[in-house]
Prior knowledge:
The protein is an alpha/beta fold. Among the domains are: about 5-150, no CATH class; about 265-460 and about 605-660, Rossmann fold (3-Layer(aba) Sandwich). The chain is built from 22 helices and 10 strands. The strands form 2 sheets. The protein has an 8-stranded mixed sheet, sandwiched between helices. Helix 2 packs parallel to helix 4 (about 110-140). The longest helix has about 30 residues, at about 110-140. The radius of gyration is 26 Å and the shape is elongated. It starts with a helix and ends in a 12-residue tail after the last helix.
Amino acid sequence: MDYKVVFSTLETVCEDNIAILCGPSESSDLPYGTVAERLITCLRQIQEHGRALEPVVASFTAIYHHYDFDAQTPGNGYRTLVKVLHSCLLHIIHKGRYIASNYNSAFFRAEHNASEMEAYCSALCQLRALLHLAEQLIRDNDCGQLYSLQDRELGRRLVQEYSSMHKACFYGRCLGFQFSPALRPFLQTVVISMVSYGETYGKQQSGLGLAALSLLTSGKYVIDPDLRGAEFERITQNLDLQFWKSFWNLTESGLITGFNRIASNQVQVNFTLTVPPVTLRLPLASDPSLTATVSPPIAHWGPGPVHMRLISYELREGQDSEELLAFSRADPPPISVSHLPWVQKQPRSPWLLIHFHGGGFVAQTSRSHENYIRSWSKELNVPVLSVDYSLSPEAPFPRALEECFYAYCWALNHCHLLGSTAERVCLAGDSAGGNLCITVSMKAMSSGIRVPDGIMAAYPATLLTTDASPSRLLTLIDPMLPLGVLAKCINAYAGTDSCTVQPAVGSSSLSALGRDTALLLSDLTQGASNWIQSFLDPMRSSGGARSLSSPQRRSQSGETGRTSNHTSTLAPGAYPQGFEPLRSECLAFIRPTSCPIIRNPFVSPLLAPNNLLRGLPPVHIVASALDALLDDSVMFAKKLRDMGQPVTLTVVEDLPHGFLSLSQLAKETVVATEVCVARMKEIFEQENPTSALHKRP
């Protein structure tokens, strides 16, 4: 729908409702003087926001095509902000029409509908602020540039602005309005689980007891979405990294992984390997008669083993060999042909897929991503080696990169054991894993050894900073990737908050996840008060972090849409005169991502000089239009294209960051996963992977 039609319809719906609510109606059951007045005030505020936003949207639509990758790939943060605003306005229009048609009904829930409209009014106010911030980015950046990579001050000011802006409305009644409708129940479940887990986090309970306690506390967040939103805002802004690690790692629990294995494709081979730290020798790409030496990972605590998972839909030659099974940690060995007499062994595949999982460099393992890896192995008919690299903050950069590079080299040398001849090797990963796919390939080029034949990176993180971009503004409203959490992950990977420790002999990120939850929590925390206070702004008074009062209701009682005395930290003129976004009483303290390591090209490949990127294999990026990291993908794809490097970019719609892990939840996630599979198939089937410049069909 054209934006002019949307704004015109919004104005009409508001006028119609105001006329109905202001007019006499003896049959109306609405309690005039309370709910009616709230609705009228809210609708007038919506009108004010709509009238102010229409010319802003007009200016964006006139220029945002200049920021696309190409004419066939419309997608960038400016487009996304307009798209999100459009979704919000359509929800308001739908709700307004419902109120106008049903306000006289005996079953009309006046309080509920007033609260819903107020929540969307708050969301519209905050989106208006985001669009004004995006206008400042357009003014300060060069045409076509989505990031201000030289102006760090602008990024710092935007982080400060984020820290005080009200966000709870996006996590309560408005949760997930911008995403596919099929995903909204899932997002609600995740948010309720998170706030319930946050309330019980740090309590001395067994794993089962903690889960039961979280279940008991979740009911109030189902009943009261405003409470849920306020509590989620508090959690995303103030809880430490160890909370997020422990919550995300719940996906590793036996119950969840067992269910995933039942629901996903059954495979013949699925077991973990532990590769000892021995020096490898690989042929040089320029002269195979010569060799290069690859040392095992050594960063932070010296040489150590690398853990991997081998998944194969079919049992292939080499996968049941004694040599491979000697690397398995299972006792007894996981595969024995004598135990599977009905399984016909297949010849080695000419293809090999090496996978690096996501999780912000701080959480999860191959087990968390096993569901879609199994599907890939079946659909591509290829063995998959997924690497369980060490996680931050215990193992900051460059440990994960060293382990992934070593795993890649080991796989090239031992492909015959993995059921492959490795004629074609593809690297695949999502988010942090996409970053590692790119940086491992850069390291292979720097070492002079064979580079992979292609990379499939889903929503990769290519710039590990909090630099300002239009899509990064989505971290204000994104339940999957809030800025406070993103900054914690970045700083952990950079080593800003590192507490590096040598892992115990024979342990790994997988085995650590099997410990009793109570022990894990007691190891990671020293009391609830410590982990809350450590992330509170030291300049603000205590007690405000748990305020659960409704910001929109305060605005109805005479305030001007602000919930605290905080004012903008941006330059004068960032907001129009008379407008200020809603402010939160729960201020966030976000540590700046200013560590020099962040700008290392092997941490942020978007900042890599051309000589470190020239020679990369074909890179296929699959991004989401609603992902806060969208601009990372667009700018990195542009950089490769402008260098003459083979690259494609596909932007899928209506999905959040991490959509690969949601592949079975909605039609849209299925389609997006199919795009990823198609890109990997292109890599495997290309005739000359190092020379042809592939264009998006």
